[in-house]
Amino acid sequence: MIFRLAHRLLASKFLRPRPLSDFSDSGDPSGRRAKQWSAALAETPSSAITRLLERGYLLRCADLNEPELSASFQSVCIIPEIRELLRARGLKVTGKKAELIKRLGENDSHAIRRVLRERELLQCSNVGRGLAEEWAASVVALQNDVRQAIVGGALDEAVRRSITFDEELGFPKWEFQGCPEAAHLARIVSAAPAILGGVSVETLQSLKLNAAMWYVCGEYFIPSSGETTQGSNLPLDTAIRMVLFSASCGGIWSSFEQPESHAYAI
Predict the structure, then answer these.
(1) To the nearest 10°, the Cα dihedral for 230, 236, 238, 239?
(2) By Cβ atoms counted within 10 A, which residue in 54, 188, 225, 249 is the most buried?
(3) Three-class SS of residue 98?
(4) pLDDT of 262
(5) Quick one: DSSP state of residue 199?
(6) With contact defined as beta carbons under 8 Å apart, do 63 and 120 qualify?
(7) Mean pLDDT in runs of 10 for the chain (266 residues)?
(8) Long-range contacts made by residues 161-168, C-beta under 8 angstroms, separation at least 24?
């Protein structure tokens, strides 16, 4: 079976060591997440991971050689755990994390492998990283296409591009999620929240573009946060939310004015 876009997303989840249990029944007791992944992959997550392992896209961390073995161990074990392993072997427990791991490896490298094996940790191989990079590139392409369409005023095209991407990915929408709509996107790009009255025209345009990208691309677009918006005392992510809130309120008022229409959800 040819790998789907969802398989590339799955591979990206293992750019850092990750336990197999995250995609097993024990890690998903409701079965809801597994159902979503199965719909997108056209096979169960366990089956997909097995294929990725068999084809060399994923590796068992316990089978790695140095220095990758110690690097994986360092990324998933905390210092108290490492010290306990050293203490059980009568070894010194002082030093920085890298020193502790080196000491443990020099005296009992099997202990490191045993921990990684017990936790069923997997990570991308070099070829697997290539698969994950293909996923990242597809997200960048989505964002570029949507941004270009919004800036050019082609709001229908921006929405279509996002919907096409989601359909290709294949995850079923949760019942409280909906597809982006051009009518609501238009409200976002024309919003003028009073709370942002002090910002410059250029700043407001940038905020509205970020809000529009967030609305259309959803989780594939994470706006910056932290710094204060110039001309306002609001953090950037809060200012973007104010644009979305203003557009949402506009949708609610529109629904009152036209009873047959529906309010748009962000």
Answers:
(1) 50
(2) 188
(3) helix
(4) 40
(5) S
(6) no
(7) 90 95 78 88 94 96 93 93 95 94 93 94 96 96 97 97 94 72 95 91 93 93 76 86 90 51 38
(8) 162/216, 162/217, 162/218, 165/138, 165/220, 168/5
Give the distance from CA 83 to its chain's centroid. 33
User: What integer pLDDT is reported at residue 222 of this predicted model?
Assistant: 84
- Read off the DSSP letter of residue 120: T
> If we measure between CA atoms, which residue out of 10, 9, 126 comes closest to residue 64?
126
- Per the DSSP assignment, residues forming a β-bridge with 121 are 19
What confidence tens digit (pLDDT) does each residue in 100-128 have?
999 999 999 899 999 999 999 999 999 99
**Contact of 212 with 150, CB cutoff 8 Å:** yes
Q: What is the pTM of this model?
A: 0.83
SS3 content of the chain, % helix, strand, coil (to 5): 65, 5, 30
10 and 52 Cβ atoms separated by less than 8 Å: yes
Q: How far apart are CA 189 and CA 205, in angstroms?
A: 8
Sign of CA dihedral 51, 52, 56, 61: negative
Distance CA 23, CA 26 (A): 8
